[in-house]
Amino acid sequence: MQDTGKQYDAVIEKCRTLFTNKMSDYGSAWRILRLPSLTDQIFIKAQRIRSLQQNAVRKVDEGEVSEFIGIINYCIMALIQLDKGVVEQPDLETSEAVALYDEKIGLTKQLMLDKNHDYGEAWRDMRVSSLTDLILQKLLRVKQIEDNAGKTLVSEGIDANYQDMINYAVFAMIHLGESKS
Predict the structure, then answer these.
(1) What is the Cα–Cα distance from 168 to 124, expressed in whole angstroms?
(2) Least confident of 41-50, 55-64, 125-134
(3) Residues 155 and 144 sit within 8 Å (Cβ to Cβ)
(4) 133, 50 contact by CB (below 8 A)
(5) Are the C-beta atoms of residues 71 and 12 closer than 8 Å to each other?
(6) What is the pTM (predicted TM-score) of this model?
(7) Angular region, 42: left φ>0, alpha ψ -120 to 50, beta rest
(8) Which residue, 51, 76, 74, 75, is CA-closest to 62?
(9) Whole-number pLDDT of residue 181
(10) CB–CB of 90/31 below 8 Å?
(11) What's the pLDDT tens digit per position in 19-59?
């Protein structure tokens, strides 16, 4: 039987390594991004994944995995921005940003474990294309919540949607990794 927790950690380690390396290259320039800008970056990545899944011809030699990594990392940035707010100048050292990354992933992984328990790992029977569509649906929901100034009447907030997108992207990467083995 597969160990979802270990598979999850392996995917996150790839994402975290890229995040850390980009922090070394660019610093925390992303801290100036407002939430709608981050949402749009995630949307672009999800749309590209959907295009890759639907089109036989690829003109850029990057596949779905790099885009799912981007979705995960941008969602974590968005979760950090939700807590810390947007700044005018980069203000985080790499070690602080990585600590915040780890905090957000810890909470998101726990949410996954709780839902996974209740849903009986139903995601394992889903297609990567369905996970992509769910990410796009969550993005449209987030955009609507943003347009409503962050207010909802009965629905989860923006943070829960970002967490779900992270978990769907991790599941997709686990599936993609298994199809190569």
Answers:
(1) 11
(2) 55-64
(3) no
(4) yes
(5) no
(6) 0.95
(7) alpha
(8) 51
(9) 57
(10) yes
(11) 999 999 999 999 999 999 999 999 999 999 999 999 877 77
Q: Round to whole Å and give the CA distance between 80 and 35.
A: 10
d(CA 87, CA 60): 33
Question: Which contacts (CB < 8 Å, 24+ apart) does range 4-7 have?
Answer: 4/112, 4/113, 4/116, 4/121, 4/174, 5/109, 5/113, 7/174, 7/177
Apex CA 19: angle with CA 33 and CA 76, to 5°?
Answer: 55
- Report the amino acid identity of residue 64: E
User: Measured between alpha carbons, how far is 62 from 96 in angstroms, rounded to an integer?
Assistant: 30
> Scanning the structure block, which residue is given the tokens 């660019």?
26
- Residue 23, classed as helix, strand or coil, is helix
Q: CB within 8 A of 132, min separation 6: which ones?
A: 46, 49, 50, 53, 172
